[in-house]
Design goal:
With about 350 residues, this protein is α/β, with parallel strands linked by helices. The chain has 11 helices and 15 strands.
């Protein structure tokens, strides 16, 4: 039985806790929070932009720690699940790796690329798995698209456009603070750069236009330039929508023999094939958003058992996604295309 210690009981910490209840071969044995109410199981003050509201939890069988060092000293913890604010990801993960624990860290991997590089180096030196919880590939519509593209089921990927737009978040003061999250072009858009990297790899160059507020990029549209052979990929992402439509994401993916179309709230995943037919694939997972997080944590557990990092949770891929976000912001500010090394 793999034993999990969750660090940080905010919205994502709660979601990971709930999702882990359905994972096979693992259980949450400890939590770490500075808030005594949360350590006592009163999670009613937790809010998020999806999923269940916070409630009173029965933590009678879970160890409760106030300080990270206390949790890391516990020999009965195999995996540290880092769910505290992004600005604390690097220092928490580095301490956990130094303590000989495997690490799962919520996206973004870190606030800055140099921190992500230090984390990858520390994982290699410790001989432990560092995994990053980019959950998007575990959502049914995106899991289907990734499988189709990577297996070549409808031929080569020709082009794609991705979309992720929200209203300005007001359910957490930290999530709205760019000094803690990097702002929408990092905290939100990194879902897209990660998924694009998964499907296509790192592009040769990026060119982005966008909007800024007090120096922080709040909305952008990017062209990912892969050279003459393509694919031709673009994405629009940011926090510019009105509260009547607080969240939308989706894609159109163009393959040699099919087009995949999906938009949350309006267009179910639809496959248009070269013979003129239209079909809607049967997807696994249903409408419960925590199901994707359960699948994500299950992949972590299976990876640790196998001694191999799951490719969907690759720390290198997560690091490259973070770098992409930074380079796109640089392109917005300079008005020029940026070449990636």
């Amino acid at each position: 039985m793999l034993r999990i210690g969750i660090v940080g009981i905010g919205f994502m910490g709660m979601i990971h806790y709930l999702a882990a209840q359905k994972v096979k071969g693992a259980r949450v044995t400890a939590i770490c929070s500075r808030d005594p109410k949360k350590r006592n199981g009163d999670w009613r003050g937790i809010r998020g932009n999806f999923g269940p509201a916070g409630q009173v939890m029965d933590l009678s069988k879970v160890k409760k720690y106030r300080a990270l060092a206390e949790l890391l000293d516990d020999p009965d913890i195999d995996l540290v699940d880092v769910c505290n604010p992004t600005e604390q990801h690097a220092q928490t993960a580095l301490a956990a790796l130094a303590a000989g624990k495997h690490v799962l860290v919520e996206k973004a991997i870190a606030l800055r690329p140099r921190e992500a590089d230090a984390m990858l180096k520390a994982a290699r030196q410790a001989g432990k798995l560092l995994m990053v919880a980019h959950v998007l590939p575990f959502f049914p519509e995106f899991a289907y698209a990734a499988q189709v593209v990577r297996e070549g089921a409808y031929g080569r990927l020709l082009g794609a456009h991705f979309k992720r737009v929200i209203s300005k978040p007001d359910w957490s003061s930290a999530i709205a603070d760019p000094s803690k999250t990097g702002g929408p072009a990092v905290d939100l858009h990194i879902h897209d750069t990660h998924f694009i990297g998964l499907l296509c790899g790192v592009p040769d160059r990026v060119f982005s236009t966008g909007l800024q507020t007090d120096g922080t990029v709040t909305y952008l549209t990017t062209q990912y330039l892969y050279g003459d052979d393509g694919p031709a990929v673009s994405c629009s992402s940011g926090a510019v929508a009105q509260k009547g439509r607080p969240f939308v994401h989706g894609y159109e993916i163009y393959l040699e023999r099919a087009t995949l179309s999906y938009e949350s709230g309006s267009t179910p995943l639809t496959v248009f094939t070269s013979d003129g037919r239209t079909r809607r694939p049967r997807l696994k997972g249903g409408n419960d958003p925590t199901t994707a997080f359960t699948a994500e944590i299950q992949a972590v557990v299976d990876g640790i058992r196998a001694g191999r990092e799951p490719d969907l949770l690759s720390a290198r891929l997560a690091r490259d996604a973070l770098v992409l976000c930074f380079e796109e912001c640089h392109s917005v500010r300079t008005g020029k295309a940026v070449t990636l090394s």
